[in-house]
């Protein structure tokens, strides 16, 4: 079985992503580095919608709240995964990017040149979560490394 | 940070606008204008084309040639390109797409059996918002236009402030009472209903809190105001805002169709849209879609909108207290909220501008107070006898044959006041007072006379009602502010946000949203009269 030294893992804390994390750890060589990419989808740029009547201070407070919520969720996710990766004797590196998930992954993979890329499969219909997903066909056509799409546990 | 982007596009847009105004002014677009039947817009095509085009050219040149430095001037000038971008879209829609759609609707009527442009209210307001939505989702808003697009909310606020000049004390008092009553019942009712169902279904307090404000008060704006107070999670915010945007866009199309199907008048529709549409931005859109050629519906709808906005700080405080109590009851740590601070920070300052404008116009500082409220009464000779451009005198008083028609039919009227008003009309060849005008309108509406007799009365009524040119222009200006604001807001409605509609907020929001829309429709149809 492939044992990769540089594993690029794209995950964001959902059950599907959790399955991808387990697979990434199983694939990684004993002294490998797990490069963890968290993409904050650019849909958040439109999350004030057509609000027009709030004062600037209210909008700023909302912006700070959303940022702090996203940061907290990422931090909780990072802490848990980093602990797990270190416990297995491997190295962990985190990168957080705002953008379109597939494009962000391709861009990071181009600079990183990983041995393999691991992502979770699309969420089953009805499962909670943001409607923003990696476009597997786009990734498969453009990635220079093997792509592992891990089935959703549900 | 320097905000200005070096781009040639503002200059290009400016040249297009000025060139178009120049061609219209020179008569070179006469054939197109005749084909589209947009002759009534020639004045604004020339004025707005030169005004906006000139500014765009100047700022475009400055952006290309000067080296912008960090500061306020840089920030404000960086918005100009986006403003021009929105205006260009609005011009194309209002002077091109709107008349074209009307023609296509009429052309397709024999095959479809109905005029789709009329039934779907595909006028410049609706198409402007749709154009904005298409721009952001298909082409994306250009980087150089982003700051200006964000400025569109200022356009809406300015429109609301200026609208303040067009209300009388009586109108504002009666609409105010009605709106407080309806908004009070439906806003508080829907907030309470969401909180109740949320608690019964054991939804997280943060999710229930942000959803109740969005569904209950004024849509996205309320969700934005309440989310930090109830510590809403990111997914809960996304679900809620997606649901509200989806519901709002659907309502904007659906409400005018339903309103026309029920034969609603301006006041009824304004009251219904102002109460039943979840998202406040779409209230203005629906009102202008219902009545694109006037602002009577908008006036009513905006009073309801303003009332909702005034409820917002109170609701946010209520939710803050509710959230803290529920979290404390569940023995979770939670930060206390300063109620007064919330009320002050959430108070919509632009409403003060609206009130100030109303007070100023009431003093007659801009024009005689009676000029503001739609068509005013004037039966003086100066108003009825005019001279046209060719120097020919036009006398709008009743002609001998018209008088004869009325004389033959006056006995058909049995009520003494109506008979007296018609007798005075026959004797003087014009309606003699505002009271007589109201009485004559009653005779017209009752269809008490023959078709010919009613036509004479209608003419007599119309010639004593006038719209001051200054006020007419002022109304056009207000409509443009709303058009600018709504096209720009359309550019902020992304499909990726709408796609987030889901989870419990979609189910609960839809249930309460439909109850609110249908409930307010029933109340309006049963209880709201068409006159204020």
Question: What is the helix fraction of residues of chain B, given as a range?
Answer: over 70%
- If strands are numbered along the chain, what order do they take across the biggest sheet of chain B? 1-4
* Biggest beta sheet attributes of chain A: 5 strands, parallel
Q: What is the count of structural domains of chain B?
A: 3
The assigned structural class of chain A equals alpha/beta
- How many strands appear in the DSSP assignment of chain A? 5
Q: Per DSSP, what share of the residues of chain B sits in E-state strands of 2 or more residues?
A: under 5%
- CATH domain class name of chain A: Alpha Beta
Overall SS class of chain B: mainly alpha
Number of helical regions of chain B: 27
Radius of gyration of chain A: 17 Å
Q: Give the name of the CATH architecture of chain A.
A: 3-Layer(aba) Sandwich
Amino- and carboxy-terminal Cα gap of chain A: 25 Å
Mean pLDDT of chain A: 90
The overall average pLDDT of chain B, rounded, is 90
Q: Say how many strands of chain B there are.
A: 4
Distance between the termini of chain B: 52 Å
Uncertain ranges of chain B: none
> What is the chains' assembly state?
heterodimer
Number of domains of chain A: 1
Order of helices and strands of chain A: EHEHEHEHE
Could you explain the architecture of this structure?
- The complex is a heterodimer of chains A (154) and B (532).
- Chain A is an alpha/beta fold and 154 residues long.
- Helices cover 42% and strands 25% of the residues of chain A.
- Chain A has helices spanning 15-27, 56-87, 101-112, 136-142, and strands at residues 4-10, 28-41, 91-99, 116-120, 147-150.
- Chain A has a five-stranded parallel sheet, with helices on both faces.
- In chain A, helix 2 (56-87) links the parallel strand 2 and strand 3 (91-99).
- The longest helix of chain A is centred in the middle third of the chain and has 32 residues, at 56-87.
- The radius of gyration of chain A is 17 Å and the shape is globular.
- Chain A starts with a strand and ends with a strand.
- By secondary structure, chain B is mainly α.
- Chain B has three domains: 9-117, no CATH class; 161-372 and 471-527, no CATH class; 378-466, no CATH class.
- Chain B has 27 helices and four strands.
- Chain B has a two-stranded antiparallel sheet with strand order 1-4. A two-stranded antiparallel sheet of chain B has the order 2-3.
- Chain B starts with 8 loop residues before the first helix and ends in a 5-residue tail after the last helix.
- In chain B, 48% of the residues are buried.
- Chain A binds chain B through residues 41-43, 45-55, 57-59, 61-62, 64-66, 69-70, 73, 128-132, and chain B through 136, 152-153, 156-157, 218-221, 224-225, 227-228, 231-235, 237-238, 241, 244-245, 248, 279-282, 309, 345-350, 485, 489-490, 492-494, 496-497, 499-500, 502-503.
């Amino acid at each position: 079985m492939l044992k990769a030294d540089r594993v690029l893992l794209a995950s964001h804390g959902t059950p599907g992503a959790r399955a991808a994390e387990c697979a990434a750890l199983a694939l990684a060589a004993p002294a490998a580095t797990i490069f963890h990419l968290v993409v904050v989808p650019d849909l958040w740029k439109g999350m004030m919608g057509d609000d027009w009547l709030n004062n600037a201070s209210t909008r700023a407070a909302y912006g700070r709240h959303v940022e702090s919520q996203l940061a907290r969720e990422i931090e909780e996710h990072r802490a848990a995964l980093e602990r797990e990766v270190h416990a297995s004797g491997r190295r962990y590196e985190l990168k957080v990017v705002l953008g379109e998930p597939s494009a962000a992954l391709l861009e990071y993979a181009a600079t990183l040149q990983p041995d393999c890329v691991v992502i979770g499969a699309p969420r089953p219909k009805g499962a909670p979560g943001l409607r923003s997903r990696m476009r597997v066909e786009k990734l498969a056509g453009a990635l220079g490394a093997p792509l592992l799409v891990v089935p959703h546990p549900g | 940070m320097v905000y200005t982007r070096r781009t040639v596009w503002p200059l290009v847009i400016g040249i297009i606008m000025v060139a178009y105004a120049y061609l219209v002014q020179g008569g070179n677009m006469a054939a197109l204008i005749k084909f589209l039947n947009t002759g009534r817009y020639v004045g604004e095509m020339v004025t707005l084309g030169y005004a906006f085009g000139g500014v765009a050219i100047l700022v475009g040149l400055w952006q290309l040639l000067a080296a912008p430095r960090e500061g306020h001037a840089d920030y404000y000038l960086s918005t100009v390109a986006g403003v021009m971008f929105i205006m260009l879209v609005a011009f194309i829609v209002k002077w091109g797409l709107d008349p074209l759609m009307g023609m296509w609707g009429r052309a397709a009527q024999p095959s479809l059996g109905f005029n789709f442009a009329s039934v779907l209210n595909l006028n410049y307001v609706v198409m402007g918002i749709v154009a904005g939505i298409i721009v952001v989702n298909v082409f994306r808003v250009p980087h150089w236009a982003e700051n200006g697009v964000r400025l569109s909310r200022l356009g809406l606020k300015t429109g609301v402030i200026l609208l303040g000049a067009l209300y009388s004390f009586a109108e504002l008092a009666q609409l105010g009472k009605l709106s407080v009553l309806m908004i009070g019942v439906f806003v508080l009712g829907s907030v309470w209903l969401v909180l109740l169902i949320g608690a019964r279904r054991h939804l997280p307090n943060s999710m229930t809190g942000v959803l109740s404000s969005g569904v209950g008060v004024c849509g996205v704006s309320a969700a934005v105001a309440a989310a930090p107070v109830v510590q809403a999670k990111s997914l809960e915010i996304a679900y809620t805002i997606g649901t509200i945007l989806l519901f709002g866009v659907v309502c904007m199309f659906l409400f005018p169709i339903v309103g026309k199907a029920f034969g609603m008048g301006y006041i009824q529709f304004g009251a219904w849209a102002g109460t039943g549409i979840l998202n406040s931005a779409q209230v203005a859109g629906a009102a202008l879609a219902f009545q694109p050629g006037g602002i009577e519906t908008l006036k009513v709808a905006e009073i309801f909108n303003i009332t909702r906005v005034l409820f917002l700080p109170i609701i946010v405080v209520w939710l803050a207290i509710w959230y803290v109590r529920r979290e404390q009851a569940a023995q979770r740590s939670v930060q206390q909220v300063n109620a007064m601070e919330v009320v002050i920070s959430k108070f919509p300052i632009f409403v003060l501008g609206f009130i100030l404008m109303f007070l100023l116009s009431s003093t007659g500082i801009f024009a005689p107070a009676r000029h503001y409220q739609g068509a005013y009464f004037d039966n003086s000779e100066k108003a009825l006898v005019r001279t046209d451009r060719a120097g020919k005198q036009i006398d709008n008083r009743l002609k001998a044959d018209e008088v004869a028609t009325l004389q033959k039919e006056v006995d058909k009227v049995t009520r003494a006041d109506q008979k007296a008003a018609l007798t005075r009309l026959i004797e003087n060849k014009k309606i003699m007072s505002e009271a007589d005008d109201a009485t004559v309108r009653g005779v017209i509406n009752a269809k008490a006379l023959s078709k010919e007799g009613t036509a004479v009365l209608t003419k007599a009524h119309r010639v004593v009602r006038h719209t001051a040119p200054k006020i007419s222009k002022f109304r056009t200006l207000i409509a443009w502010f709303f058009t600018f604001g709504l096209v720009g807001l359309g550019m902020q409605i992304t499909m990726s946000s709408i796609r987030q509609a889901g989870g419990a907020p979609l189910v609960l929001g839809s249930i309460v949203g439909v109850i609110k829309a249908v409930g307010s429709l029933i109340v309006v149809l049963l209880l709201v009269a068409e006159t204020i």
